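Supplementary Methods. Inverse-folding protocol.

Structures were first reduced to a discrete structure-token string of length 315. This string, shown here, constituted the complete conditioning input.
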């Protein structure tokens, strides 16, 4: 440390930094599992890593609603559409939820908004079925169900149901229990299945579509989608589908949730790069929505690890 202070040579400075880093990292490499756990608890208590991670995950889940609201304001400003009154209230609820202000009242608003979007999509699909006799479901529609599962976990973080306890000393006593009760476990199961619906759909439909994404004609190979389109990344979808099976049934649920979250983040950063796309403004808005859906669902999976998976799992 004294050498770092008194030297001005960059080579000596770099060498000293490397030795200092090795002096710190080598003892950590020789630690066993129990020592690592104690070290993690020490870091967690000192820097509040768990608490900060939960705040960050909640903020990222809210980023989907923030993007949805700002997109509607962008369309209103650029294309003279009607003023987005509904999304004005959603934007306020999103900011309150993201910054943990009145979260018990603001998070249910986001849940209700997602339910409203789901009902709107279902209504449109029913009308489309009666008109054409076909059912059309795309990836983004199913992702809305996954976002509903993600935002419901924010609500479940602050949901502690009141249960009635009957005893000789206090019959019919109402007690707020901060535990994974049957009611909370059932709601967690619903949230987990909503999250899984995205990956099951991706596995069944999107992989099948991508296998037929090219057409051969007169010795030439033609792509059904433009080069750079984020829909044509099959390996991410295959991994998401494979990991969603143990996640849905509740086998190694925490491990599966973290793995799917990692894949979703990688897909968002490499497939849905809306900030560098040259496929037009319409595609950039569409890719941006995919990006924030991936981020929101990934953060929801991390929140599930903190909320708990509940009683209804193989684990």
């Amino acid at each position: 440390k004294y050498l770092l202070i008194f030297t001005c040579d960059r080579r000596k400075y770099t060498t000293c930094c490397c030795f200092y880093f090795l002096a710190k990292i080598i003892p950590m490499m020789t630690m066993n599992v129990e020592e690592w756990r104690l070290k993690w608890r020490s870091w967690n208590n000192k820097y509040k890593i768990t608490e900060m991670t939960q705040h960050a995950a909640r903020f990222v889940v809210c980023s989907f609603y923030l993007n949805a609201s700002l997109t509607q304001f962008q369309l209103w400003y650029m294309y003279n559409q009607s003023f987005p009154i509904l999304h004005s209230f959603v934007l306020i609820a999103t900011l309150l939820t993201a910054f943990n202000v009145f979260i018990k009242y603001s998070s249910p608003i986001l849940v209700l908004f997602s339910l409203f979007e789901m009902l709107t999509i279902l209504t449109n699909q029913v009308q489309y079925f009666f008109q054409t006799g076909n059912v059309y479901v795309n990836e983004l529609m199913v992702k809305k169900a996954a976002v509903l599962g993600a935002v419901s976990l924010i609500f479940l973080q602050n949901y502690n149901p009141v249960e009635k306890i009957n005893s000789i000393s206090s019959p019919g006593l109402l007690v707020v229990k901060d535990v994974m009760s049957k009611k909370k476990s059932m709601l967690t199961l619903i949230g987990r299945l909503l999250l899984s619906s995205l990956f099951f759909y991706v596995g069944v439909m999107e992989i099948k579509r991508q296998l037929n994404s090219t057409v051969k004609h007169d010795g030439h190979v033609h792509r059904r989608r433009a080069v750079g389109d984020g829909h044509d990344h099959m390996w991410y979808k295959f991994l998401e589908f494979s990991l969603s099976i143990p996640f849905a049934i509740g086998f190694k649920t925490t491990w599966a949730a973290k793995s799917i979250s990692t894949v979703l983040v990688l897909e968002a950063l490499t497939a849905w790069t809306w900030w560098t796309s040259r496929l037009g403004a319409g595609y950039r808005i569409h890719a941006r929505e995919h990006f924030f859906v991936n981020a929101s669902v990934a953060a929801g999976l991390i929140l599930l690890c903190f909320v708990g998976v509940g009683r209804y799992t193989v684990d």
